[in-house]
Structure formats: C-alpha cells, structure tokens
Design brief:
23% of the residues lie in helices and 44% in strands. It contains 3 helices and 8 strands. The mean pLDDT is 90.
Length: 163
C-alpha cells in the first residue's frame, strides 16, 4: 500500500491569530480568498461556522483562456473542529471533480500580538489520483494564502513557505 499524499503549506501574517481565524468563517471575508482563482469569480459563499456545520463556495471559472464559456467549481466542507483562534478542521469535497472527501486542517500559531503563522495541511489520500493532483493542490493553496494576505491585510509583509 502506498503512503498518503499530504500537502502542507505555511504563511506568516502581520495580523492577530483571531483575525486570521475569523476570516475563514466570515462569508464576506472568506469569499475574497477562499477557493478563488486568478480568473474566477466566487458566485456563492455560504458558511455555517459550527461543528457539523459547513460551507459551500462556488467559483465560476472560464473553461479556457480566451474562451467565453464558463464552469462552476463547487467546494463543500463540513467542520469537524473549530478551536478559536488556533485550529479549523474540515472534510472537503470538490464536487466538480470528484465525490471523494479529503481532510483539511488549518493551524494558526500566534507569533505576538500582531502576527501569526498559519499552517494548512491537506490530506489527499493514498490513491494515484491524489498523487496526480498533489502539485496543483499545493499551488492552489499557496495562491489562496497569498490572496488572503492581499485581500484582508493589504500592505502587511508576509513570508510564505511550502513544506
């Protein structure tokens, strides 16, 4: 049996841990970074921030560069842990591509009153399909964390790393 594919990315924010945590659970803020792509538009962002609650984020994307047709990518999650301001865990399904569920954990460590480091761990599974999307998934999360920095904390300096 092959080992599971785990994507781990980190980002440091010049913002309190509470502010970063809350951004994940506030629809108006989350819609500005959560599952957004460079060419997409978040059409729907619904969040029920409680254990057993969840979210639906729909990003409308062009089918191809220069193509006027679009398709919707639907991300659905169910919260399994919410420990403010340190940890968010959820089961994630990206319905447009698969009905398989993966596990995502967001850990937020305070580095002082106005700084924190967020580490995101995405367990993709041990399948060949998981291996095929590993790098794309890593790039997607890194892009999202950068977008979160620009959208929610403009002008703040940050360090990004991928482990």
């Amino acid at each position: 049996m092959s080992s599971p594919v785990v994507v781990r990315v980190s980002h440091r924010y010049s913002a309190p841990a509470e502010r970063v945590f809350d951004a994940w659970l506030t629809p108006g803020q989350a819609s500005r970074f959560l599952f957004r792509t460079r060419t997409g538009n978040v059409m729907r962002c619904e969040i029920v921030p409680e254990i057993g609650g969840g979210f639906t984020v729909t990003d409308r994307r062009p089918a191809a560069d220069g193509d006027e047709s679009v398709f919707d990518v639907v991300h659905m999650g169910k919260y399994t842990e919410l420990t403010r301001p340190k940890r968010i865990a959820f089961d994630l399904t990206v319905l447009t591509y698969t009905e398989d569920t993966t596990k995502v954990v967001v850990e937020i460590a305070p580095l002082g009153p106005q700084a924190c480091e967020m580490t995101l761990i995405h367990e993709l599974g041990a399948t060949e399909a998981a291996r095929m999307v590993e790098e794309t998934t890593r790039k997607g999360w890194l892009n999202m964390l950068q977008l979160m920095e620009r959208e929610l904390f403009p002008g703040a300096s940050a360090c990004i790393s991928s482990a």
